[in-house]
Specification:
The protein has 390 residues and is α+β, with helices and mostly antiparallel strands. The protein has two domains: 121 residues, Helix Hairpins; 183 residues, Immunoglobulin-like, CATH 2.60.40. The protein contains ten helices and 15 strands. The strands form four sheets. Strands 1, 2, 3, 4, 8 and 11 form a six-stranded mixed beta sheet that branches. Strands 5, 6, 7, 9 and 10 form a five-stranded antiparallel beta sheet that branches. Homotetramer; the homotetramer binds four ATP molecules (one ATP per subunit). Forms an heterooctamer with ABCC8/SUR1; one KCNJ11 homotetramer interacts with four ABCC8/SUR1 molecules. Interacts with ABCC9/SUR2. It is found in: Membrane.
Length: 390
């Protein structure tokens, strides 16, 4: 939506997901079904619901959840049906009072200028939408006509309130604001502060802030209990951390959210080889907060399968200081670079810290070696000619 309007270049944004346009969009092997799609939709089909009447107990929510064509059809039919119903009532009142009989114009009618059903239908529209052309009006001749006038006005106000409320709620739904909350296409696992961490990047394209933004993460996988019970969607909450600590984030600029893989993490025994063979792993990320401009709570979701987690990579910096202010380069939002990372599980790393020490030593020697080579290349070469000695 944003790319079609020219706000964000198309190669940077696809719905709420920043992708790399150079990466192929196909895979040779079949992937497992997602529980939550990349754009946040839940991939769940509800079948064989027998108690359909429960949806009618909350008519307003049912109308808001309907698709736009169905909502507009109900919006139009509600007005047409009410106009036709009260047109029939006005015609019956005129018929019972004898106002439709020709040649009896001396008697005072209940409603003036009603001679057919068409004129009764026009009067019904005038009453309900308060047009008031002035050609037709209710007289004091029939108290029943006055009562019907009051009832039709109340019914018209109720229809206006319900249908306009549904239209407003559909246009101001929370997921509309979530379209500009973006997640990185891939998540990464690398060493941070001496521990293996699961990291992802999240950002907000709008200048209006998300107040009290919190982020949660769940691991969804197929498990089997010791008693043999198969749980197809076993959900486990895992803590997320950020630069300021806790789950609350200040989402002014893109942030890297990370989860420390420790003994309490469900990823404690995850190895690099499992990312290519562990088809039952799915990590769901949920960002929730209050929209600053409307005060409506919004929620953005995404998920990462095992083959969408990159081991031994880190996100590149995209925030820089320019001309006294911070600028964000969203063209590098999902870009990563390779970094030295142990090819073992977090459990093995905790049991043998020498793996991390060797990795730290190797990464420290790398820049020194490159620096020494650069100095050697830049060092001037001196030669002594025989003429200079004479």
């Amino acid at each position: 939506m944003l790319s079609r309007k020219g706000i964000i270049p198309e190669e940077y944004v696809l719905t709420r997901l920043v992708e790399d346009p150079a990466e192929p969009r196909y895979r040779a092997r079949e992937r497992r079904a997602r529980f939550v799609s990349k754009n946040g939709n839940c991939n769940v089909a509800h079948k064989n619901i027998r108690e359909q009447g429960r949806f009618l107990q909350d008519v307003f929510t049912t109308l808001v959840d309907l698709k736009w064509p169905h909502t507009l059809l109900i919006f139009t039919m509600s007005f047409l049906c009410s106009w036709l119903l009260f047109a029939m009532v006005w015609w019956l009142i005129a018929f019972a009072h004898g106002d439709l009989a020709p040649g009896e114009g001396t008697a005072v009618p209940c409603v003036t200028s009603i001679h057919s059903f068409s004129s009764a239908f026009l009067f019904s529209i005038e009453v309900q939408v308060t047009i008031g052309f002035g050609g037709r009006m209710v007289t004091e001749e029939c108290p029943l006509a006055i009562l019907i006038l009051i009832v039709q006005n109340i019914v018209g106000l109720m229809i206006n309130a319900i249908m306009l409320g549904c239209i407003f709620m559909k246009t101001a739904q929370a997921h509309r604001r979530a379209e500009t909350l973006i997640f990185s296409k891939h998540a990464v696992i690398a060493v941070r502060h001496g521990r293996l961490c699961f990291m992802l990047r999240v950002g907000d394209l709008r200048k209006s802030m998300i107040i009290s933004a919190t982020i949660h993460m769940q691991v969804v996988r197929k498990t089997t209990s010791p008693e043999g019970e198969v749980v197809p969607l076993h959900q486990v909450d895992i803590p997320m951390e950020n630069g300021v600590g806790g789950n609350s984030i200040f989402l002014v600029a893109p942030l890297i959210i990370y989860h420390v893989i420790d003994a309490n993490s469900p990823l404690y025994d995850l190895a690099p080889s499992d990312l290519h063979h562990h088809q039952d792993l799915e990590i769901i990320v949920i960002l929730e907060g209050v929209v600053e401009t409307t005060g409506i709570t919004t929620q953005a979701r995404t998920s990462y399968l095992a083959d969408e987690i990159l081991w031994g990579q880190r996100f590149v910096p995209i925030v820089a200081e320019e001309d006294g202010r911070y600028s964000v380069d969203y063209s590098k939002f999902g870009n990563t670079i390779k970094v030295p990372t142990p090819l073992c599980t977090a459990r093995q790393l905790d049991e043998d810290r020498s793996l991390l020490d060797a990795l730290t030593l190797a990464s420290a020697r790398g820049p020194l070696r490159k620096r020494s080579v650069a100095v050697a290349k830049a060092k001037p070469k001196f030669s002594i000619s025989p003429d200079s000695l004479s």
